[in-house]
Amino acid sequence: MSTKKQVLQMLEVNKNVPYSGQTIADQLGISRTSVWKAIRALREEGYQIESSTNSGYRLSSFSDVLNSESISQDLEEPLSIMIYEQVDSTNAEAKRKLDEIKEGDFLILADEQTSGRGRLGRSFHSPTKTGLYMSLVLQEIPQSVDPTLVTTAAAVAVCQAIEELTDVKPQIKWVNDIFVNGQKICGILTEGILSLETQTIQSIILGIGVNMTLDKENIPVELIKKIGGLLEGQEAQVSRNQLASAIINRYYQIYEKIETREFLKEYRKRCFVLGKEITFTKNKEKYSGIAKAVDDQGGLVVRLNSNQKMVLSYGEISI
Ligand code: BTN
Asked: In this protein, which residues make up the domain named BPL/LPL catalytic (predicted)?
């Protein structure tokens, strides 16, 4: 491990605790000049490291640089993590990595996506460092696991993680958009990879994009009124590393007992479309009705204005 990484690791272990240059040098068996050079390089990368002559160096609790050690440290289960400054899409990169990594779950994160993908063939606006863009790859999926539920569970995990770290009370717009104060702050795109031999789902790529802040000047016009940022107007300072590990921990807690469908109770409570008048398009035809329930497969049960019942298993609704 490079000196820079070793120094960072020391500062990460006890964020907010100051270490003198001498302590770092002694613990790592390096010179004070090397410590100083490492600190300078880390600051250049964007780490907020405070220093005082009396107490030493301290990593500010709000140092928002994507860092695999920092994420790993907070994870309940170990996970292989890859971080990029820029990729086309973390889901696309995850798919490419699946050719090399045949076993075990892994996580891809990026500061920026140049072709971030959304559901229904849309794009996902992913400017640099303003959002958490990540893809969790689940391998060896038991055949009994319903892929739709995997996505639904992710929506609940994101809400729980946000509540753990902030005062925000997120809600879900069916299927899996996360809303705060009437604006979408997170979208989830799940892609299943089929085994060529068995034609069954072999891996699932769970792509999660959370807008942390908004670069208001550069938001595409059509998104201005629709999207929000998790930290906009918030006191809480949450780093992308913290949010990533909280989402993953929450996700695995749910995933372990996904077949019990226990998490659907929480999904239904957070699903703000229930009881509301909705419209949607199916097979090029427009429908409207009342969203009545979310069934045990995560489908939306709708009582149409014609009084017929329809169950939607995917798609997009408007309210
Ligand atoms: C949607 O709202 O339609 C889904 C958006 C999903 C965006 C995330 S960001 C990380 C991952 N990589 C992508 O290209 N898309 C997902």
From this structure: 74-259
Q: Which helix (H) or strand (E) holds 96?
A: helix 90-97
- For the chain, list the domains and their CATH numbers: 3-59 (1.10.10.10), 68-270 (3.30.930.10), 277-318 (2.30.30.100)
Averages of pLDDT over runs of 10 residues in the chain (319 residues) are: 86 80 93 94 87 85 82 93 97 96 96 96 94 96 83 96 95 96 96 84 95 86 89 85 96 94 97 97 94 95 96 92
Contact 187, 176 (CB under 8 A): yes
Look at ligand 1, atom 11, and give the residue with the nearest C-alpha. Answer: 207
Q: Which distant-in-sequence residues (6+ apart) come within 8 Å of 161 by Cβ?
A: 243, 246, 247, 249, 250
**CB contact at 8 A, 77 and 252:** yes
Give the mutation target among 186, 189, 230 for probing the ligand 1 site: most ligand atoms within 8 A of CB.
Answer: 189
Atom of ligand 1 minimally distant from the CA of 134: 10
Q: Which two three-digit tokens encode residue 215?
A: 């670069």
Indicate the top mutation candidate among 208, 226, 316 to test ligand 1's pocket, ranked by most ligand atoms within 8 A of CB: 208
Q: Which atom of ligand 1 is nearest to the CA of 115?
A: 14
* 120 Cα to the center of ligand 1, angstroms: 11
Determine the pLDDT at residue 22.
93
Task: Please give the pLDDT value at position 52.
Answer: 83
